[in-house]
Amino acid sequence: MVYSELATQVLQVVGQFQLEPTVKLILVHVVSSGTSDFDAVVDRPHAQ
Predict the structure, then answer these.
(1) Whole-angstrom Cα distance, residue 10 to residue 13?
(2) How far is CA 4 from the centre of its chain?
(3) Which of 2, 19, 42, 47 is most buried as measured by Cβ atoms within 10 A of its Cβ?
(4) Cβ(31)–Cβ(39) under 8 Å?
(5) Handedness of CA 9, 12, 18, 19 (dihedral sign)
(6) C-alpha distances out from residue 1 to 11, 36, 46, Å
(7) Is there a contact between 25 and 42 (Cβ–Cβ < 8 Å)?
(8) Measured between alpha carbons, how far is 42 from 34 in angstroms, rounded to an integer?
(9) Confidence class for position 32, pLDDT limits 50, 70, 90
(10) What confidence tens digit (pLDDT) does each residue in 4-24 have?
(11) Do 19 and 8 form a contact (C-beta atoms < 8 A)?
């Protein structure tokens, strides 16, 4: 798999964390719409 330079740097930093094998990590990249009146609906995981 080919990653961008930024993605490679992020993965290197995350790799330095001492996480348990069962930890689930969610990485999110937010892109601004450029307009202040834009409302975006974001799906969020809900505890069940």
Answers:
(1) 5
(2) 14
(3) 19
(4) no
(5) positive
(6) 13, 36, 31
(7) no
(8) 17
(9) low
(10) 888 889 889 988 998 898 999
(11) no
- Which residues, including other chains, have CB under 8 Å from residue 45's CB and lie 6 or more apart? 26
Read off the amino acid at residue 47.
A
User: Can you read off the two tokens belonging to residue 32?
Assistant: 């601004």
SS3 sequence of the chain: CCCCHHHHHHHHHHHHCCCCCCCCCCCCCCCCCCCCCCCCCCCCCCCC
The structure tokens listed for 25 are 């990590």
Question: Amino acid identity, residue 12?
Answer: Q
First-to-last C-alpha distance (Å) of the chain: 34
